[in-house]
Amino acid sequence: MANYTITSDLPPLPAYELRPMPNVLPFISDFWLSILSPHIAYWLVALFFHALDVYDLLPQYRLHTPEEISQRNLASRYEVARDVVFEQCLQVGMSTVLSLTEPGQMTGMEDYDVDVWATRIRLAQRALPAVLGVMGLNATAISKNMAASHPLLAGALAGGHYPFLTTQLDAVTGAKVPAFATWELNLAKVIYWFIIPAFQFWLAAFVLDAWQYFWHRAMHVNKWMYQFHARHHRLYVPYAYGALYNHPVEGFILDTLGPAISYKVSFMTPRMGMVYFVGSMIKTVDDHCGYALPWDPLQHLTSNNAAYHDIHHQSWGIKTNFSQPFFTIWDRLLGTMWKGDTALKYERTRAAAAKKSVPIANGNGKTNGSPKGKANGTPNGKANGKPRQSSKARR
């Protein structure tokens, strides 16, 4: 498809020819790359943090000790991995449907689009004389006075009138037509290549944050809905690859439907969507990693990070810090942000876990602990053959 546009005294818009955009990688189509890349990113980042866990490489940055992970969590690592893979299968299906609704991304129109923005900038300048007139300034007189020394500024003050800026339309006719100023084109490029994509990413993040906050909070307020969210809170001590450990209903509403809506609302291109989904997935994993790393950029871009979300996973903070995955604005506005010091609370849980992990010696010099959950050598984990007193009875 080709196009060529000339509009009155405005610079003409260039011809363009659309063609399919080449794939990012030569060995896989963008269609499948957009579907699989978020999940590949998920496991690459998750396995990095898992290696830190297994080999205890950065214990000084842990939010919880290894003893807390083994004692406080109510789901095994196998159960978590199984449910995450199932959730990702659902997301692959949803992503496939979403990708099929998108037309193939085309290229070749970029210069035309930049010139469209340059035209809008030129038209916007026509309001300058009126604006300056309201302020008591004579734009025409000012423009004439500085025409010789600052012709571009004079042209802008005159309402975007640049009679000295022309270009040859084509080599055959040699006709002269108006041209854009360099600053107009540069500003148009900044708008097209940076400001608009940045706004689209921000809008998508804002929509996703709002979607997840209100659904997430509702699942804590409504007892019927909490039955779906309760599975995620079986991890009192979050770790990286448990980020998507959810009930399928919750996983579809929060982590599948929400991102899809935010993508559609922001009118991103398929390639921008690929970056957005990969970035969102990495951020989600990072928020559950269990580490407060000083050199992790994702933990410093906003105050919504692993330490912030970890509070929500604790029994004493479960009714706070609902915001995820990007900002904390909804918690701030609606008064659900945790307030107060957490150091003492974390220290108590660490101490309790450490105390439970230390075997206690009995009268024979042997420890009460034994393999496979047996206590004092008795089956079924009963201590001294006597059942443990219930928590209600102890109270």
TrEMBL record:
Taxonomic superkingdom: Eukaryota
GO CC, alphabetical: membrane
Parts of the chain that traverse the membrane: 31-52, 190-215
Localization: Membrane
Keywords assigned: Membrane, Transmembrane, Transmembrane helix
Molecular-function annotations in GO: iron ion binding; oxidoreductase activity
PANTHER family recorded: STEROL DESATURASE
Keyword Membrane: yes
Region (Disordered): 352-395
This protein's record includes keyword Transmembrane: yes
Name recorded for this polypeptide: Sphingolipid C4-hydroxylase
Domain Fatty acid hydroxylase positions: 202-336
GO BP: lipid biosynthetic process
Principal cellular location given in the protein's record: membrane
InterPro entries documented for this protein: Fatty_acid_hydroxylase (IPR006694), Sterol_Desaturase_Related (IPR050307)
